[in-house]
Design a protein that fits this description.
Pfam families: HET
InterPro entries: HET
Number of helices: 12
Helix content: 10-25%
Number of domains: 3
Protein name: Heterokaryon incompatibility domain-containing protein
Oligomer: single chain
Structural class: alpha+beta
Number of strands: 21
Largest sheet: 12 strands, antiparallel
Distance between the termini: 42 Å
Length: 514
Amino acid sequence: MPIRLLSFERHEIGLEIKLLERGAIISFLEPKLRRLLNAKYPTWDLSTVPTEENVFAIKGLVRQATHYAILSHTWLRSDPGEITYSDWISRSFNPDEAGYRKLANFCRVASTNHNLSIGWMDTVCINKDSSSELDESIRSMYNWYQCAKVCIIYLAETTALLDIHRDPWFTRGWTLQELIAPFVVKFYNRNWIQFIQRTNNDKPSPSFSNIIPEILQEIEKATTMSEFELVNISKAPISRSMQLAANRIVTRQEDAAYSLMGIFNVSIATAYGEGSERAFSRLLQEILNVERFGVLDIINWAGLGRSQRSHILPRSPQQYRFCSSSLDLSDVTPLEPLTLTNMGTRIFVLLMPGISIARPTGRDQHPKVSPNGDYTATVNITDPDDDRLGKRTFHLLDRRISGPDGGKESDNGQLMTQNTFAVFNIEWKPGGLYIPQTCVAVVLRCFEDAGKVTSTGMFLRVYTSEPCVFKLKKRSTERRSRNTDSYVDMDEAGEVIAVEDLRKHGMQLVLKYL
């Protein structure tokens, strides 16, 4: 239950609205609980020790007695604005002001339309002057929305059903969890009228038995969220959940991280003033601490803006706008747990160096592929030093790779760029290292000889406009022409290579701090 609640009981003159503290909530609900108990179990003797069966029944009655409504809305931008906890305690508000009218309308529709007598509204039910209470509220808010009997979503700037997706409510950071967490939601327009009145729930249940297509189409327009994601966000990849939050606006910069705690089922202490990057870094670290499956998807981002503490973690949700939707890392288990240290993220990667050869004009020559072993791949990325060259094609595991990465000139005057691709979706399996057909990598510029990179050696991250994903090809056993090897796509099931055989294919397994 929330720390405090609004109570609203019907009287002849209308609703009587009160703000109840924790002790008062119990006193307010106890008579209702006793009535329920006496009606259903009139012969029970409450002075005796209850049986296990009785305890289970009483818990069910408690849940029924403590049903409450919860409000999701955008705060008023006008002055004096919303009624806060301190305003209510000091009674320094005018009942004719917009803030009180919103509060009263919430209580009215919760009572009239949903037959409830208690509700929660963040503006007045949180004492923001208490840092400890604010911290508890922020960390508990997802659960409060999830446990509510109904979440009333008030779209203050919308009247027509087909305009729902344009409402500013869909642009705010906190409203993402307020849409996802509750099991029952009802959308109300600016006049406090339900958009859809033929059902008690505008959100599909996990069984998808009550789909409201009009509302769902508007939600998808506004958020890109599918029906499945709306009720199963815990099963979505990390990068996808981050992507849903990437373009949302928050008033206090740290809330970009704090508003995601419930969605990822983690908890971090709030510390307003720490800045958005530090708050988001702590959020990612906690996700790394608790996630077991699919944790590698946390690296599925692109663009500039890495964390100051790690080359493979971003500094905000915005970098997940460029995540790859085609990747499925849900079943990939890292070779060892990812650990964020003072040197970066500790992670095993499989290094595959590659070269790009071009004429001075920047036009690719498409040199003949000459792999070092049985595997090869091509990757297209934007040149990190000179974007005038546009996309560059890198040939991985080529036998002409040598020395440290970087730009250099070949004997015939052509420009050659050498980068190392650090593949991270690899696993241990019987017989050696499992390498999938589709590899996911970060691009590095290493300052050590190819094949001799150390865990603490110097490197730079090469940033790309999209996640680096490529498919490995394998040498075909059939010769297509004399003295010419052919390469075909590696089997979709991937392959297991003994660690001692990696070097002959031009690969290197190394523990890096990225």
